[in-house]
Amino acid sequence: MKRLAILLSGRGSNFQAIHRAIAEGRLKAEIGCVISNVPDAPGIEYAKANGLPAYALSSKGVPRADFDLQVKRIIDEAKVDLICLAGYMRLLSPAFIQAYAGKILNIHPSLLPSFPGLHAQKQALDHGVKITGCTVHLVDEGLDTGPILAQAAVPVMEGDTEETLSARVLVEEHRLYSETIGVLLRGL
């Protein structure tokens, strides 16, 4: 069975969607570890409540390369096949990315290359686009610049706010991420 490492910083709704897909048999994988750089992240509490190996490490004040070495030790010990960023709000060091080249996935709430970085839905609304969505991509050393693996479109509705648009995009994120992980794992 292929194993996943999940990295998160917050509520972990994409992580929870992955966990549900596994529990329901839609994704053939197991979660080898869940790591948060925010000790009180709700996603870590969810992992613990569901009996998953959960690690909460504070990244505050820790140099990126040093912190990533701690994360790498956990991932290597868990013997995972794929690393899935699920709302992980910390840039990864070049050494970490090189160590797992082609094995780190991210889900981003826009149709990349449009609107990288934070507040993608606000950016979409500010630019007046009629369609936005989400993107699953491999992680490289740039900010949301890695090779695109899958995308899902979401229409921008009249009167949308950042919150209403974010909620509709999140529905597609939850579906698309698990599906893309499954396709990728079948090829490993």
Would you summarize the structure shown here?
This protein is an alpha/beta fold and 188 residues long. The chain contains six helices and seven strands, in the order E-H-E-H-E-H-E-H-E-H-E-E-H.
Explain what you see.
It is built from 6 helices and 7 strands, in the order E-H-E-H-E-H-E-H-E-H-E-E-H. Helix 1 packs across helix 6 (162-186). Strand 1, helix 1 (13-23) and strand 2 form a beta-alpha-beta unit. The mean pLDDT is 97. The protein has helices at 13-23, 42-49, 64-78, 94-99, 120-127, 162-186, and strands at residues 3-8, 30-36, 54-56, 82-85, 104-108, 131-138, 148-155. With 188 residues, the chain is of the alpha/beta class. The chain has a single domain (3-186), classed as Formyl transferase, N-terminal domain (Rossmann fold), CATH 3.40.50. It has a 7-stranded mixed β-sheet, sandwiched between helices.
- Based on CA inertia axes, which overall geometry fits? globular
Number of domains: 1
Given this structure, which CATH class is correct? Alpha Beta
Strand content range: 15-25%
Q: Assembly type of the shown chains?
A: single chain
Order of strands in the sheet with most strands: 3-2-1-4-5-6-7
